[in-house]
Amino acid sequence: MSLITSYFSVATPEQAAEQATRGFEQIRHRSQWEKAQQIANDGAQAERIREAAAERQRRRRLRLRKSEAKLGLRDRETLKKVKPMNLHSSPTDSPVVSPVDPGPVSKAVPAKRRPRTNYFEPVRWKLVVASAKRVGFSSPQQLTHQLKVGPSGELFETLDRGTVASWINKERNGWTEAVLERVRRAADGNPPRVVDPDKQLGRRPLLVLSVVASIVILLTNMRNAGAIITMAVAQSVVLAFIRTEAPELLDNPKFKCSRKFVRRILCDKLDWSWRAVTQAAQKLPADWEQQCLDFAHRLTWNIAMNNIPPELVINADQTGVSYLGTGSRTWEVKGSPQVSAVGQGEKRQFTLMVAVTAAGKLLPFQAIFKGKTAESLPSRSAQDHLTLPQRGISTSRFAAGVSGFAGY
Questions:
Q1: Contact 122, 113 (CB under 8 A)
Q2: Residue of 125, 167, 133, 131 whose CA lies nearest to 149
Q3: Where do the domains of the chain lie?
Q4: Interatomic CA distance for residues 28 and 296, integer angstroms
Q5: Tens digit of pLDDT per residue, the chain (408 long)?
Q6: Cβ atoms of residues 16 and 305 within 8 Å
Q7: How far is it, in rounded angstroms, from Cα 165 to Cα 157?
Q8: What are the DSSP calls for 159-223, one per residue?
Q9: Cα–Cα distance measured from residue 224 to residue 270, given in angstroms and rounded to the nearest whole number
Q10: Does this model's pTM top 0.70?
Q11: CA of 295: how far to CAs of 2, 40, 284, 301, 305, in Å?
């Protein structure tokens, strides 16, 4: 009894090549037809969405016209706008309010800040002393009223009783020492008040100037060297200087080295802002989609023709892993045209190779650490050094980690 394979003929190389070409063309034509069908379906769906949106807008406008017709703004039958007609001439002195009149407009002028007045100059202060002799120091309101209703009241139009009350001492029998000092300075032609340049105005800062200067210098040097300054890095620098130069600040229960506190130092002391690192974007070829499709066709044809099992179809890729996760943004001086940074390439990274099979099995990771000399390799006296080959770890400078796939 003959086998069924005895009826088969052996294909010549030309016939095998023709069959391979025909199979590849069939796969290409099927893929192009499916792509065209998908585009047609997407276009039909987009057209249906546009028609539905237009119908909703038409119904909405119809509802608005009907509501305006109920208010008398449109004709109830034609839904056209009704034009108002002025049958009586209105007098010229009576304003005509149109339907779109915005209403009365306020003509009030915004109040401006009053100019400062020096009441301690000799001319004004003599009048103040004369009024104080007549009414006394017991009532600042009476003294203010006496100055305003007097013959020179225009000189005290902006004076209020609160200002006069601050001039009188606590015993209500005279002026305060600060006021008398201002009067003496005004009599000599000097300004009434002198601000001490060494006097600290406002709230006392938490950090002394030496600590702030150290923080600013270190962060500036790091940024000039190209290091990426993130909030975590800046917060670590600030906290390190506080622990070494101002440790008593950490004992304050009201103090907290928060992100807001660090951000205030970066913005106020360094004039920095959160910027993105400027770098050239990766460019793709114009026909990258077609190249990917051709690669998928070749891969599918080879797997089908050679009957390759899914366990032997491996997809692997290499990626760079940074030793310090910094990202692509950093703190930099506001308005800088270029934001440079080091560590964005592969100089401060190691290569990690990840592989997975078509059967869904994840293969062991392969970590590749580049080193120019043998000093970059693990020491032979290190703990568990002899067990590294058993774990699939290679210490060779040229095949680091290749044995990770040996057990598969």
A1: no
A2: 131
A3: 16-80, 122-187, 215-276, 309-405
A4: 10
A5: 556 666 667 778 887 778 778 777 888 888 888 888 888 888 888 888 989 999 999 998 888 888 888 877 788 888 888 776 554 444 444 444 444 444 555 566 666 666 678 888 888 888 899 888 888 888 888 888 888 887 778 888 888 888 999 999 988 889 999 889 888 888 877 766 665 655 555 567 778 888 999 999 999 998 888 888 889 999 999 999 999 998 998 888 888 889 999 999 999 888 888 887 765 445 678 888 999 999 999 989 999 889 999 899 999 999 888 776 666 778 788 877 777 776 565 456 788 999 999 999 999 888 887 777 777 777 777 777 777 777 767 666 544 443 444 444
A6: no
A7: 16
A8: --HHHHHHHB-TTSSSB-HHHHHHHHHHHTTS-S----TTSPPSSPPSS-HHHHHHHHHHHHHHH
A9: 13
A10: no
A11: 42, 25, 16, 10, 15
What is the token pair recorded at 266?
A: 């970066």
Between CA 371 and CA 132 the distance in angstroms is 91
Query: Exposed, middle or buried: residue 131 (CB in 10 Å: 0-12, 13-18, 19+)?
Result: buried
Which DSSP letter does residue 370 get?
-
Q: Which 8-state DSSP code applies to residue 270?
A: S
The amino acid at residue 86 is N
Structure tokens at 180: 């008398």
Amino acid occupying residue 193? R
Distance, in Å, from the CA atom of 133 to the CA atom of 137, rounded to the nearest integer, reads: 8
